[in-house]
Each structure stands twice: as structure tokens, then as C-alpha cells.
Amino acid sequence: METPDKSSTAIAFVYRGTLVHSTPKEALQVLEDALLGVDSEGKIAFIGEGNETQKLSEVFRFSPSAVTQLDQHEFLMPGMIDTHIHASQYSYAGTALDMPLLQWLNNYTFPVESQFKDLEFANKVYTQVVKRTLRNGTTTACYFATIHTDASLLLGQITNDFGQRALVGKVCMDRNDAVQHYRETSQESQDETNRFIKELLNKKYPLVKPVVTPRFAPSCTEALLAQLGATAKNNNLHIQSHISENLEEIKLVKELFPKSESYSDVYHKCNLLTDKTVMAHGCHLSDKELALFRETGAALSHCPNSNFS
Fold it and tell me: Which InterPro entries does the entry link to (predicted)?
């Protein structure tokens, strides 16, 4: 139980009932008849036992009559963390599942994402996805937006307005032969990424930060990947991308980057595998690549629905 200091803020809510969470030692810990206090800044001020309500009320200065009692089958748990969400793909979630990855990107994804240049359209979709994820208990999210800087900044604003903790990424891609109007030049991608990072950080949102986001190796030149690696290092930022989602994709990476030993090596050479990196999928990584992930501290986001597909 925490002891309040003189700078402690007032207690706004107190709940009594079952708490469920995970610890470094236990995958699932259930605390029955627990008492949880939340201060006016939205932070947990204390956790104690229900039979200590009177004592805790005196220490943390709240009224026992104001305690909210959870019902028998209700419980509180920490918010869920989704480490890989394409916010722009929410508009057609659950549809367009009839093609493998690369064909799916060219026929469905890129044409839809190109529409996010329209800020009214972006606002509608991004508001829906943030509200839906919060409604489902996701209080922290790593978002891919699109190549459009202003729409990506809008996603950051929306997550902040709804109180969701988020890493928001403006997508970078200077290679895309399928949808000609949905790509940037390498210089545009670098310049707009720097603008995105600067403007989002200047907002000083308490829970929302930028994340460097090369879409995936096939949609980026090596020069752009290297520049993004330097940008992430210079600004001490997180990095997100995709890796080894399907075999056709891996074959394409070998053709585009013949001097690299593996898909992971492409990113590693460009300083994009760090202890702040989250790579999605990783279905077909070799043992050597997995060892590289361990060595660099990079993380994998396992996406069950996508990976089963």
C-alpha cells in the first residue's frame, strides 16, 4: 500500500471488489475483496484490502460511503495494449479477405489509404477506431496511420482527446508501383516524417508520442530505411514496421535487397532493430534472425488473425 505525501492529489474514485492483473512472477493474479483508489489525475493512488476501508479512508482522505462496490461477477483489470493497429484499415475491417498479402495490399489497402488525404474522411474513420478500441478495453495502442502527415497528426489529436495512450506513426513508403498516387519520394518521406515528429512532439500530449514507421522493407528504398533509422536514433523514438508475414513477401525482399543476408538484416543494417522496435508478424523468422532480435532487444507483435490468414 502506498503512503501519501503532501503533494498527493485528491482521491477521485475508490472501488471495492475483485482485481485481476499480471505480475513478473505470476501470469494471473486475482485479488478478491480489494480496494483501489484513483486520484484526480487518473492514476492509481493505492491498492489495499477491502476490510481496511476505514483505515485507508483516514490515510487517503476519502469517504467510505463514496466507495463503488463492484457486483459479484464484475472485476477490474489493467487496460489492454494493442501493439499493432492499422487505424486506416478500420473502414473495411472484416472484409476483403480473399487475397494473399501483396495482392491484398495492392487491390484493397493502398487505394483505401490514399483517401486519407481527405481530412474529413480521416476524422470519421480515426474517431471510430479510437472509440471502438477504447470500448473494447484497449487503453494503449500502436497505430499505423498513412503517408499523409496532417491526417496522421489528426489521429494523434483524436487519441489524445479520448484519453488513449498511443504511439502514432506516419507511414513512410517511397516505393509503390501498384498505386502510383500513393507513395512519396524519398526526400518527401524524410521531410514529412521530420515535420510529423516535430509537430506531434510540440503538442506536448501527455499520452501520445510519434513512432518512426517505415511500412515494410518492400515499400522503402534502403536509403530511406537508413534515414529513418537515423531519425529514430537522433530523436530517441520507437520504431514499428512489418517482417516475414508471408513467403512471397520474403522472396520479394531478397530480390530488392540482394546484399542482405535476411529480412531482419535489411532492418538491422539501417539501425531499425533496437530495444524500441516493434515488428509485426514474424511468421517465418529463422533461428539466426530470432537471435538477432534477442541481441538488439527488438520485439515482435504477434497478430493472430493476420498470421492465421
Answer: Amidohydro-rel, Metal-dep_hydrolase_composite, Metal_Hydrolase, Metallo-dep_hydrolases
